[in-house]
Amino acid sequence: MNQAQIQPQAELRHGRVTSPSSRGAVAMELGLLEGWQVNEMEGGKNFPSLTAGPFPAPYQTDSDSVTPPADGHILSGGKVDQRDCVNFTNEELSKKLGRPFAWPLLNVTPGQNFKVTWQYTAPHVTRGYSWFITKDGWAPQQRISRAQLEPKAFFDDFYTQVPYYSHSAQMVAKVNHEVKLPSNKKGPHVIVLMWIVANTGNAFYQAFDVDFK
Question: What is the pTM of this model?
């Protein structure tokens, strides 16, 4: 990508996880997406709610959420263009590529610390990060929906300052952070990580395929 292509994206307040490999990163390796598209997996931050409006208390002074992603399009933040490929099942992905292919699995252990590194173009004022995971017995042959995910985040990492506009200098996006994975999971699962923005209606969605050993 040349400098002329990079410069417009440098003005966007977006970001993506660069380590470990997300579904977006895999899609980039496969030539299905470019980096700017993985940076823009943005959708309403009130997930798993389906409705736009105020962010839940005690953070209701943050900007109202736009409509959160629909089922089947969660992993792309609701995007249904080329970015929809990150929602593909292994069968859909294989059909798209014209050859058998499965989302690569990251080997993890129950209860381990899962570390991520982000690359931000120009970070927003950040409320925090929420982590979701698929239920036991989820169906990999189906796209990720709310019914496929545990109903609540297994971890929230939020700045507690309110209102955000009085504390924006402290509410910085984290380049490196980590979470303790659930201790009761076995086998393949999908993790959904949301970077939640205080001063817009969006969160940025990143997804990981893991295998609990």
Answer: 0.92
